[in-house]
Amino acid sequence: MNNPWNKLARAVSSPKGAKIVVAVWIIAIVILSLIAPGAKQAAVSSGEGSALGETPSEAAQKIMDERFPSEDGLTALLVFHGKNAITAEERSKIAEISEWLASAGKPQQLAGALPFHTLPKAVQDKMFSDDGSTVLLNAAFHKNLESGQLYEGLQQIRSHVEQTGIGSLDFKITGPAGIAADTTSLFKNADFVLMFATVGLILVILMIIYRSPLLAVIPLVISGMVYMVVDRILGLAGKYGWFLVDKQALSIMMILLFAVLTDYCLFVLARYREELKTAAGKYEAMQQALSRVAEPILFSGGTVLVAMLTLFTAAFKPYHHFAPVFSTAMAVILLGGLTLIPAVFALLGRKAFWPFVPKPLESSAGKAKGFWASMGGFVTGRPGLTAGILLLALLASSLSVTSMKYSFNLLKSFPDNTSSRQGFEILESKFPPGQLAPVTILLTSEKKLTLDATFYDKIGALAGRLKNEPGVNAVSPEIKPAATESGTQLPKNTISADGTAVKLQLTPDSNPYEPVSLDLIGRLRDKSPALLEQSGLNPSEFTLHYAGQTAEQLDVRNMNKRDTILLFTLITLFITVMLLIQTKSFKHALTMIATMLLSYTATLGLGWMIFHFMLGYDSISYRLPVYTFVFLIALGVDYNIMLVSRIKEEALSHTWKEAVSRGVALTGGVISSAGLILAATFTVLITQPLQELFLFGLTMSLGILLDTFLVRGMLLPALLIFVGDRKKSRIDRQAGADLVSPRRQN
To answer: What is the value of pTM for the model shown?
Structure first.
């Protein structure tokens, strides 16, 4: 057989070659285990900034750090809340806790706290909610603490509050420090849960599919070997700073690795079983099988790798930092799929299928049977009806995408019983929502400011114009006409120490994470030169900067919009090119990518209907469309390539219509099994505590099942009936007569 993949097949599937391949993998595992740490030891959180340069909010925060330096790090908001107004006795307990926070006995991670206990009663009263049921204390931690240190410090505060006793009051901790600590707590054992759930689920499904203990265990052993190599390579990368290893990426990477390698095992096994029925020996059978599936595996894995490499173009750090982790993993997965999988099964031979050992037959030719044979006959017999119904259903589901709403509030992803989320919701209901995260406005100049009455009047005019903007609740401090030129009427830290910046605080009317607040900061940025000019400040000499969580989330929204457009375009383009190279048919490549895109939009639309109307979610994470697109499109290519490759192979000895029917029949079982395993592994993410991961796992599972059974099993074959070149098929059938062995008809 004149097949370019024969050389690879002989190298990894011969008696000597198979043993060498397995030995090399084992040696690599041993060496890497001795010299490299695990990836988790080197993993960090990537944050939400830009990987390609400073965002406006990052630039503003940098100016804040330079001109208004502080020793304080993340802030914890300590929330005391009662069903009724807080009593005098409960207030005294809160004061006692405040005194402890200012003492030498406070947690060593704590830099300082609001001295509630030293404030006059009249000042304390202003700190309570209007109904007197809630009060908030601020506590600042030292800079550059790890999330584990924050968690330990907050646990000490919780223990002290419990020992002090605050009666019937609820005590919650929220704010940046509380969120960081809760994140650590939520994911403390998440990787172990994911690992065992993934392995257990795949094991059960493989046992059901093959009813063979070896075939259930071997793919997991192979996946485990590849995972150990990937894990140590990523550990080396993190240790020596080759690239950032993102914590969240590691969790999803592990699922991807086990799922994809198991799929590759199924693809190889399906062909190996066929070859064992006609080949003289197990090594010859694997050489024949690998020469047939190596190209589809290379192109399917290659398209996933290209999609992951495309993430390097993203500006948003969580997207950008997924790229090196997944690209590294996919390269090793592809290597394992083309070498380790065939080598292991070549060594095991027919024994791997025990107790259902495939027996040698004179020929495996004949008519395919079973569910997918019937489905192939139905689809090719009524392609117009099949395609029409499915296209209408998928397009109808896709329409729901236009009504989707997105959230930029991380706390909405936390479970309802999380302290930081509960504390935030209490504050949101008891205080003006904008006070939860005010926006810091910096007026800067390259020259030292002239602090005279005229300048203060201009600052007052600027503050007034900001206050009059729609959506602004307040601007502080209140700037009154300057009675002197000393500036003593301004609160401490309003003017920077070097005299080149003024700091104001803006409180929006709405929740700082809601789209309306993000829109407000966007408008203010655009209007900044006009606001300066109208206030008597020359825009060429002065600049306005906006810092804080609302400004940061606005930049996140802008980066997400930019990355969504760029990634969707590039991934679609690159995968189309890969499909064109593999199929050598413009019509086939366009048909395949079109069905994948339709499958994606239908999945997103159907998912939104489930999330919104059945589960009651008002919005979903803004990251969900990008994550789903990258993984669903990239992984969906596998099944496209496997199906079309088999159809084109069958077209060498059958008419085009019959080739499509046989392609569906002969690949339907393995593709549906692979799809079930892939969907099940992503379902494992439903066990994760973050709403974002829960919805991502659910969406991916839904999309994979839809893609496997409806799009790949029915819609694509129906469309191929219309776009396939029947004339060329017959010519290829004649030309290929000498290329196809008489014993090989399927």
So the answer is: 0.87
